[in-house]
Request: fold
Amino acid sequence: MTDSVLRHDTIAAIATAIVPQQGSVGIVRLSGPEAVSIARVLFQAPGRQFWESHRILYGFVRHPATRQMIDEALLLLMLAPRSYTREDVVELHCHGGIMAVQQVLQLCLEQGARLAQPGEFTLRAFLNGRLDLTQAESIADLVGSQSPQAAQAALAGLQGKLAHPIRQLRATCLDVLSEVEARIDFEDDLPPLDEVAIQQQIAQVRAQVEQILATADRGELLRTGLKVAIVGRPNVGKSSLLNAWSRSDRAIVTDLPGTTRDVVESQLVVGGIPVQVLDTAGIRDAADQVERIGVERSRQAAQTADLVLLTIDAQAGWTAADQAIYEQVHHRPLILVINKIDLVATPPEIPLAATPPIVQTAAAQDQGIEALEQAILDHARAGKLHAANLDLAINQRQAAALTRAQIALQQVQDTIANQLPLDFWTIDLRSAIQALGEITGEDITESMLDQIFSRFCIGK
Reply:
């Protein structure tokens, strides 16, 4: 993909989600040297409207040969370098739906534009110096945010709150490297190297790298969320719990055991964390083939979930069937939910040697949901939300690069402690510098760029 960008051709794509019979506006975006000329061929702006940068023109998109009107539209013109890609950019704001934007895009392609590849607009913004790599990735995170906190973390990255400290750390390493290399090349002309000061600088850089690296789990949690499976015997109130929690009627609730035959999903946000809740079929030995399939899917959901909510009936207490289910899921992160607590005078005893966290609920009465959410947040914080700097939330690629930088800096410290020659210092310093440069894009290969931007949507 990077080779095609460097040819400076003109690309086009639909920049908005296209949903049949929904959406009032669809946008076709062009970027490149021929963007304006293509727009002039296709767009008729009646009256005395001036084609000036950052102006909106009203008019019609017409077929260049037949002059048939394709759509009534608005045209937004953004000339280089004051555009998202720092190239000439044209946006045609058409009516929503499918047909209008698809026809307009097809006309752009017929006039010489090339269909953009995933993330190619943002890739051009990076290659043209408008964004660094952390900002580009933050744009993808912002588009895919599933909670306000995830959006805020993405905006922090877009504002440079990750790139700025990374650049400072890299600059410090470059300064140290230049000091060391100067002593190698001009040992007789310079004063001796202050090894204590060098060690202090390396230690400070490493400590800051580790501090940023500690946000990786939080970043992963904000991006992907938690998968939570509600499991238990039939008729213990799993579906009622899901409905009370999601404030909807996603699951059918009856007094008949085995009503839920498949896994029912609901998307929630708990304390800023996206949560995918899976209401599973009651786990039991079922004679019905369809129910057996549902029970097997319940077991699979429990094995793959980040957190299992083992739900029991307070009236029935802890049964042999509950014990059997517990034996299947006790190795997973677990919260025990005692439901229908409003129907008993005292909670039932739980005969377990190591009792998991317990939450009491009365799902049918909408009671205990806040306590359940707090228990889930406590689990998340204990496992992943331990980072002090909540403005930062690095992704897996950035974490891998920071880990390499951390290892290289440790090796520099070991090299100094072992009093090895200065040439050995420079090897690991360069490794740390390269790893830090990969995060912001100063040191990056074309294959890595292709891998990063291929995850973007087309049109972004």
Observations:
- The radius of gyration is 29 Å.
